[in-house]
Amino acid sequence: MRTGVETGANSASVVLFLVALFLFASPFTVWWAALNPPWYLPYLLWLALTAVCAIAMRRAGLHEL
Amino acid sequence: MSFSLATLSACAIAYLLLLFLVAYGTERRWLPPAVVRHPMVYTLSLCSYATMWSYYGSVGFAHRFGLGFATIYIGVTLAFILTPVLLMPLLRLTRTHQLTSMADVFAFRFDSQLAGVIVTLMMLGGSLPYIALQIRAVAESTQVLSRDPSPEPIAVGFCIMVSVFAIIFGARHITPRDKHSGLVAAIAFESVIKLVALLTVASVAVIMAFGSPAGVEHWLDTNPQALESFYAPVGGYEWINLLILAFAASFMLPRQFHMAFTENLRPSSLATASWAFPLFLLFIAAAVPLILWAGEVLQPGTVPDYYVLGIAMLSHSPLLALFAYVGGISAASAMIILATLALSSMSLNHLFLPLVPPTPGTDFYAVLRWARRGLIVAIIAAGYLFYLALERTEGLVSWGLLTFVAIAQLLPGLIGVLFWTRATRSGLIAGLLTGGLIWLVAVIMPALTAVSPLDVLGMPLPLSQGVTHYANVTFWSVSANTLAFCLVSLCTRPGEREVEAAAACRDVTTRIPRGALLARSPTQFVQRLAPVTGYAISMAEVGKALTDVGLDWNESRPERLQQLREQIERNLSGMMGPVLARMIVEERLQLDTDARSALAQNVRLIEERLERSRSRFRGLAAELDQLRRYHRQILEDLPLGVVAVTPNLRVVRWNPAIETLTGISVARAVGRQVEELDSPWGPFFQAFLDEDGNHAYKRRLRRASETRWLSLHKALIAEPGFGEAGDRLLLVEDVTELQLLEEELTHSERLASIGRLAAGVAHEIGNPVTGIACLAQELKDEAPDDATADAAWQILEQTQRINTIVQTLVGYAHAGSRESKPQPVRLAEAVEEAMRVVHLSKRARSMTFQSRVDPALEVMGDLQRLIQVFVNLLSNAVDACGDEGRVRISTRVLGGRVHVHLLDNGPGIPSHIRDKVLEPFFTTKAPGHGTGLGLPLVYNIIREHNGEFRIHARRGGRPGTEVLFTLPLAGARSERDDRRYA
Predict the structure, then answer these.
(1) What's the pLDDT score for residue B176?
(2) How many CB atoms neighbour CB B179 within 10 A?
């Protein structure tokens, strides 16, 4: 039983988590690693994930800087 | 280049002193508090996650395991993405119940001291290798820079300095409510130092080895095997398992838990950390492959673990090398300080205090403080021993992995805390023991000894403790743990307190107490706690709790005392762990579960909590809540006063209507005994409650300023199954207005019936009297002698008198009906006529009458009736005054009305009958001498003329009576007059 704000944040975080798993802990991971991409690619993916997380937190109103 | 041991020691000491300064300055508020409370400072303090393992070990790990080294940081990202679902609930839980470690959390949730002990032992045992890792890295990095084969003294010195720091800045406060801001600031500072150092070395490395960032690309193109081995482990079996390890460790490592939850100042900081912390780790992880490849190109002559230092030394900049060294010291010190603080607190709550319970004679707070300090020293010493004992064949990271596997055993239990209420303590303990055993046998013992028990049993393990081995152990231990946890939980039943605790963890609402408190006041609380904690501590704790919930020492309401009891339990939990706190509170501040007053008393408590949770209801719960509010609103909106009392005569409901009626506010009424309510209400309601009857009509309640009439009704609220011994409902109806109206009506009825009676009587008397008068007239005409004639004349006079009386009566009875239209009447004429009539009586002849009426003054009205008015008034004056009596009549015109003023110098009207003179038939004369209708008639006539009539004692001190009335001036007609007279 959560407030509307919290439910929104909860759903966003679970979705984001699944995306992160897909990127870094699934057969998809093996696939893109086998391509031997530039060394910074994983970091870019990671950065994108972090940025989306930041946006989601801010949107959800939990963020107070 | 190389440095002397002395230089390096001086560097390390200088840095640690700087750390002291930062911490001290923060506590002294040299920095504005807003800076310290900033979410970024909190986030940086969490970055103590990156220790020597990240600083040195990651490069070595990357060398062996490619990009797999980054799993340690990606796992953290995964965990912190789930902040709203995983970390926020934990934060709320720890803040509400003042839980300071995972051991506290498990002990609270599963209501088990044993769970706390097992978790503490596992954490202790698991953390020692990690501490040893830091000490090893300090020693080895010193070795690299100084090329001195025995860096032991510096390692020991480092341990000592770090212990001192931990004791001074981390073990000051004994409860988690007081945060260690200096510590947090110091750790944040350290994080910045190590990040900057690492990034600096990485940049230098890239420039030295590749010339520019593009050079890296170029080198990788020409050395494809580098990139291949970099990506080889990605997505593999070990990769997944390491992600799981890092996921668990990111917030369940003792130091991480401590910084993230215990030292958290604001929940919103955690929201910031959810993305900022992974970002920090991203930067650290980005530096690692660059340093690795640069090292492979430059070949600095060190093992890959220490490429950082090697490259720094190759740069021929002593400053850089020392900076890099200090960066490492920074990473190590942060880890050890925090880990020992967290572990000492955990050990205190779960190992020390249960064995050495507080005794009344000692200063308990001091015992806690000194015990904690002792534990800090002991743990660091144990870490040092581990450092000496563990095999050093593997890279740094393998020692860290030992710890991570231990932490991972807590994952199943965590799911039980947050999501699975069916989990039981037996399940948890079974799971922990299973996983722990596997960890011990497969990982710890091989690291400590050359021969593992499995070898003895005939199941040899690979000698190399490679990553694959750790991955296997992780998988098997966590799986076995989970399996045991689930199976045993399903086969056992949770206890009542466990269920309550599970509910509390799920939604962080504290439980509704079952039963009434035996203690009746805060002072009794103190007395009851004193045998366990000592009188001074007991006083202090109760006082603190009173301040927390905003009550005072005079509090006697049971529901507030329940709140106090809960707060005391929370505060004690912060000091000595939840299990011990609960034990003390349950034992000393007992509840009487037989007392059935619990439910009604707690209505208010339940309602308050429902209000707080209201926005979080969904579905059926929301509808039930709506229904509850609807029913409650009915009570609130009733124009009747509603009071609900428990069988113990305590008020539990007090609606707005009765608040208005009595002037006693809800806050003051609820929880009190009925008779304690402000007088006169308390005794009034109490008396009614004591009676047998259920209804009382028009009870009079006298107060200082007024009298009220109230109708009271009471009803029993029967509880199904409990028969008649339920709460009672009191309905209070204010019928004062009704009562007053009824009295007025009765009065009017009486007057009206008198009038009708008078009319009837007058009518009946008229005829006989006329007959008598005729006969008397005849007698007088034919009287034979003077005596008879005189007698006849007397008879006529008397009949005339009867006629006058009858006419007065009829005039009064007919006073309401108008027969003629108002005419202009000369007032002076009416007065003169009246005076002539009155002068006929003997007594009037000895009095003086003064008329100061303006002869030209005209009023609208009826001449005969106005004459009647003056006749009555003058007759009264004549009857009242004796000889030398004087009556003066004067007039004044004001605002379209004529004010007539009569003044006499008689004895005046006594004050006790002044109210009654206008009442019909009220007379002070002896029977037969007056009807008592004179003044009422005057009053009625004046009212018909739209005037006002007043009679009172003469002003100015002299005796006498004043009569004042107003009449409408002829010519100054108002609409109202037209309406009335038309």
Answers:
(1) 60
(2) 15
Is the CA virtual torsion B312, B316, B319, B325 positive or negative?
positive
* CB within 8 Å of chain B, chain A residues 10-39: 10, 12-14, 16-17, 20-21, 24-27, 29-30, 33-34, 36-39
For the segment B457-481, the average pLDDT, to the nearest whole number, is 76
The mean pLDDT of chain B is 84
Q: Which is higher by pLDDT, B898 or B450?
A: B898
Q: Which residue has the tokens 């060394």?
A: A39
**Average pLDDT for chain A:** 83
Partners of A20 on chain B (C-beta within 8 Å) are 77-78, 81
pLDDT-wise least confident of A39-53, B223-237, B279-293, B575-589: B575-589
| Neighbouring residues of B490: CB distance < 8 A, sequence distance ≥ 6 | B422, B427
pLDDT of residue B666: 84
Digit-coded pLDDT (tens) for B781-820: 888 888 888 888 888 888 887 887 777 666 666 655 555 6
* B502: pLDDT strictly greater than 60: yes
For residue B654, is pLDDT > 90? no
| B81/A53 Cβ within 8 A | yes
Q: What number of other Cβ atoms are within 10 A of residue B544's Cβ?
A: 14
Interface test with chain A among B76, B81, B199, B284, by most A beta carbons within 10 Å = B81
State the Cα–Cα distance between residues B379 and B448, nearest whole angstrom.
18
CB atoms B78 and A21 under 8 Å: yes
More confident residue, B260 or B149: B260
Chain B residue with Cα closest to A18: B78
- Distance between CA B926 and CA B371 in Å, rounded? 104
- How many alpha carbons fall within 13 Å on the CB side of residue B34? 1
Please, what's the b/e burial string for B113-144 (b: 16 or more CB within 10 A of its CB; e: otherwise)?
bbbbbbbbbbbbbbbbbbbbbbbbbbbbbbbb
Comparing alpha-carbon positions, the chain B residue that sits nearest to A57 is B271
Q: Which residues of B touch A43 (CB under 8 A)?
A: 282, 285-286
Local structure of B890: helix, strand or coil = strand
Q: Do B282 and A53 touch (CB under 8 A)?
A: no
Q: Are the C-beta atoms of B481 and B434 separated by less than 8 Å?
A: yes
Q: What pLDDT score was predicted for residue B461?
A: 52
Which residues are CB-neighbours of B593 under 8 A, at least 6 positions away? Answer: B514, B515
Mark B280-291 as b/e (b = at least 16 C-beta within 10 Å): bbbbbbbbbbbb
Considering only alpha carbons, which residue of chain A is nearest residue B620? A1
Task: Give the tokens for residue B664.
Answer: 């006693």
The pTM (predicted TM-score) of the whole model is: 0.68
Does the beta carbon of B236 lie under 8 angstroms from any beta carbon of chain A? yes
Instruction: Tell whether the model's pLDDT for residue B908 goes beyond 50.
Output: yes
- Among residues B962, B972, B976, the alpha carbon closest in space to that of B897 is found at B972
Angle between helices B102-109 and B578-588 (to 10 degrees): 40
ipTM of the complex: 0.92
pLDDT at B188 over 90: yes
- Strand pairing of B886-894 and B897-904? antiparallel
Measured CA to CA, the distance from residue B728 to residue B715 in angstroms comes to: 6
Interface residue B67 vs chain A (CB under 8 A): yes
Question: Is-contact B732 B698, C-beta < 8 A?
Answer: no
Task: Look at residue A3 and tell me whether its pLDDT is greater than 60.
Answer: no
Look at residue B154 and tell me whether its pLDDT is greater than 60: yes
Burial of B232 (0-12, 13-18, 19+ CB in 10 A): middle
Question: Highest mean pLDDT: which of B260-269, B433-442, B695-704, B952-961?
Answer: B433-442
